[in-house]
Specification:
The chain is α/β, with parallel strands linked by helices and 296 residues long. It has helices at 2-15, 22-28, 30-46, 50-64, 171-176, 189-194, 210-223, 225-229, 246-274, 288-295; strands at residues 67-68, 73-74, 79-81, 87-88, 93-94, 99-101, 105-107, 120-121, 126-127, 132-134, 138-139, 144-145, 150-151, 160-162, 167-169. The protein has 10 helices and 15 strands. A hairpin with a 4-residue loop joins β14 and β15. Its EC number is 2.3.1.30.
Length: 296
Amino acid sequence: MFKQLREDIACIYERDPAARSRWEILTCYPGLHAILAHRLSHKLWNTGFLWLARFVSHLARIFTGIEIHPGAKIGKRVFFDHGMGIVIGETAEIGDDCTIYQGVTLGGTSLYKGTKRHPTLENNVVVGAGAQILGGFTVGANAKIGSNAVVVKPVPANATAVGNPARIITKEDKKTTAPTTPAPSPASAEEAVRHPTDHPCKAEWTGKPLKELLEQSARSKAASPLHQASNDAFPAYAVDSTNNDPLVQVIHELINHSAQQEQRISQLCKALEELGQRVENGQQPLDVERLNKMME
């Protein structure tokens, strides 16, 4: 008993950089308290004291904010990080060395009694904040479930599930989705004037559709050493340093496109002023007839 308690405290001390001492973990970590209360309620459940087991789990829910059914099976060195809002169903099984963040639900989609309604997490699974794993399937060892993902089908070992509904990403997929970017050809002096690259946004407008710009941005990020080094990092809180969110990429491309259009409009106004047509902040309409004569 005490050996298992020492293992639980040691795993929290290792995984949580905010932990300053083992005494702090023992007295101030609700995830640990929920695990200890569950072990008591699980023993009561297995020995036939069903009401008392539910009452112990109910008290643990009140004090920790973590709801674990007494019938659930939890392995060794399981870490509930923060833990508030975690719900674990009756037939759920959690392997050793798993890490589960706040707001996670290990729920079921079936109402039939006596069946496997809740998921099984094998060893060393990481479940991000707010993820929902629903069904009586298995999440393989060393798998990772992204934050706010809704998983309704089995996840292979060493894979990552992200999104709603969750899509499965394996290491083989990551290796095959890293195309190389062709080397840029040197631009002429005229192209350098038409497409300046000294803008603070550092983006060159090429007239390509937004979809092509996004694909080009993704290829350049995938080929960069920084992206490859951080590719295995798991964002438990749905935030990473590589900005892989498509919505973020779209916003960045729109900002860059707007900045380039503003730069080109400024250059056109300057060129018109050099030709004798004065432009004052876009308030004075252009003399179209005069402009056509000058262009002729």
